[in-house]
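Quick note —
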Amino acid sequence: MNTLVPRPVAELPWKLLLPIMALGAFGTVVLYSAAGGSFSPWAASHASRFCIFLVMAILISRVPLDIWKEFALPAYAVILLMLLGVELLGAISGGSQRWLDLGIIRLQPSELMKLAIILAVARFYDILPAGEIRRWNAIWPAAILIGLPAALVILQPDLGTALMITAGGLTVMFLAGLPLRLFVVSGGLLAAAIPIVYTYALHGYQQKRVTIFLDPESDPLGAGYHITQSKIAIGSGGLFGKGFLNGTQSHLDYLPEGHTDFVFATMSEEWGLLGGAFIIAMFLLVGRWGFGVAERARTRFARLTAAGLTMTIFYYVMINLLMVMGLAPVVGIPLPLVSHGGTAMLTVMLCLGVLMSIDRHERARAYF
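Predicted structure written out below.
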């Protein structure tokens, strides 16, 4: 077998790639059904993007770990300037100003920041002397690194992405060894500030999302329509689902955004609880592999980066699943590798590429 399979192929992390490819293939099948049994307009583009981004991730895995460490803070600075450019020159679509129109493509810098914030905060704690970890000098620089991009993204406005950036940065801070009481006190202050934030900081549509999350039946045909139809679709699937191409909520257009944010509901109606369990199991395998990379890492930067990137993917999945089941407000977070849309898939594939780079570096060190 060793003579039949080229060594570069045999050395690929198949424990990661197999569940990733299973998710991409299953997402293509679900999107094919969501379009009424057609590869157009979603399934074909989803499959092609997946293949391109997967090759990109494998190529990224060849980048030495020292490169990620060296360019972590400069890359963060460049993307921060791009976020500032969005505020000054960004393209407006759907009432939000989130993109830079580069002619060939429209780039969303906030998505790139989800990766950059992990690298930057991990690099900061890699530089910080171990004896400083419980002092004020370990807190305020990381808080600024997280707060600046989060504030710029909130101005777009894009609360969901701002929360993802903040959660990723705080995760690295926690894993770096900051005192637990710091997070407990901060969480208490944040909880106390919720009424003030709700009243004065959130836009009207964001306040409506919170209200509908607490009581979706209060406006079932208006703001609560998405989550009501999503819960109907998930519940009607039962254990085994209605069968491939037999969904009604998406085919009859009762379920809005059934190919993007609510793709899990589209899938659950046709594939039931078993389909949902399959998707969750594949993501658990991805998470297990990612935390394994973090556990084997021998440097602080590699350890924090691997754990932070794995948690970023986990946040994507957790927020989307809670959202479509009515357990969290609707914030526009897609299900990675399954939902249609290139931006989230690109971000997740970048995270996976860096994770594979760390894994390759650690395996090479163990070999020598």
